[in-house]
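Order emerges. For instance:

***
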Amino acid sequence: MLYHLFQYLEQYNVPGARLFDYITFRSGFALILSLFIAIVFGRRIIDRLQMMQVGEIVRNLGLEGQMEKKGTPTMGGIIIIVSILVPCLLLGNLTNVYMLLMIVSTIWCGALGFADDYIKVAHHDKDGLKGKFKIVGQVGLGLIVGLTIYLSPAIVMSESTVPVQRTVSTTVAAKPAVVTSSPAIKSTQTTIPFVKNNNFDYAYLTKWMGKHAQTGGWIVFILVTIFVITAVSNGANLTDGLDGLATGTSAIIGVALAIMCYLGGNVIYSTYLNIMYIPNSGELVVYAAAFIGATIGFLWYNSYPAQVFMGDTGSLCLGGIIAVFAILIRKELLIPILCAIFFVEDLSVMIQVAYFKYTKKRYGEARRVFKMTPLHHHFQMDGSKVESIIKRPKQAIPESKITMRFLIVAIFLAVITFVTLKIR
C-alpha cells in the first residue's frame, strides 16, 4: 500500500518518494518491520494465547525435558504469518503476480495449519486435522501455483546467455551500461545443480508426445509442484519438534533463497553469472526479507527454552512458503540439498514406519532402525531405553545442542547449494 502511495506521489516530485522504487530499500524496510512486529507484538500474542489457555498437548515419550514443555502456548505461527503479511501488504507491489502468489500461499498454508491446531486445542485431539485433509489442502495449493505459472502471461523466463554489453567512455557524457538478454518466454525450464548447461526442461521427459511435448512438460511441472509443496511442508512440520529448530532452519533457507532470487531477478547479475533470468521476480526479495525478519523475530521467543511453539499454524506455513518460493524462482530441484534437513526428517519417519511394519509381519516382532523418529528425537533419546539398529549416541544429547548442530548443518547445506551452481 505504501509502495503504491509513493508511486502516486512520485509524479508530484515528493522528496524521498523514489526510494520505494528500489527493491533493496523496501527489502531492508520489510526485514526491520517484520522483526519489530514479531518481537513487540509477538509478546502480546503470546500473552493472549496464555490467557486463552492454548497450551501444547504433550505425551510422555521418555525424552529428556519433554514434560517441562507441557502447557507452553502453541499456535504461535500466527506471529510469523502476521509479521510476514503486514510488511508485504505495506511495502510490496501488489500488482506483481509473484508477490500475490506468495501472499495467497501464506494465507492458504496458515489456514490449513490453524485448522489442525484448532482441532487439537479445542477438541483435545493430539492428531488434529486428518492427514488426508492436509494432503488435499497441499495438493490444492500446488494446483493453484502450478496452473498460475502455466497460465499467467506475466510469468516468463530467459536463459540470460547473451553477454552484458557496456559502453566504454572517458567523457562526462558517457552513456549508461546497456544490458541485453535472450527473449523472455513461457518455459518449463528449471535450474539443475552440477550441470554446465544448468537449465533442465521438463518437456525433455515428454518428447515421446511429439507436438504435444510442451503441454506434457507443463503437466509434469505441475505434478512436481504439487509433490514439492507437499514434501517440504510436511518436512517442516516434522522438523518442528525442538525449540528453535524449524524456525532457525527456515531462516537460514530463507536467506539462501533471497540471495538466489535477487541474482535471478536482476538482468545484470543473472547475465554475468550465466543463470536463469526471471523478469519481475526481484519483487520476491521484499517477501523474503519479511520472511527472514519474521522467523528471526519469532526465534526470540521460540529459542530454548521456548516461551511459545509455532504449532502446525507455523510449521506447515513455513514449509509451504519455502516450497512455493523455490518453485517461483525455478530452484525447486535444489531443495533436496538446501532443505536436506526437512528431507532427512521426512525420510527417517518413512524408513522407521516401513521397517517397523516389515519386521512385525516377517518376524512377529516390530523392530526399529532409529531409537525414535523424526530424526532429531533419535539424538534426544537415551539408547538404554529402546532397542534399535542405530544405537549411537548411547546417551541423550541436550536439546539445545541438537538444535545448534542442526543449524550448523543447515548453514553448511546453504553454502553447498551455491557451490553446486558454481561447480558447473
Q: What stands out?
A: Residues 23-51 form the longest helix (29 residues).
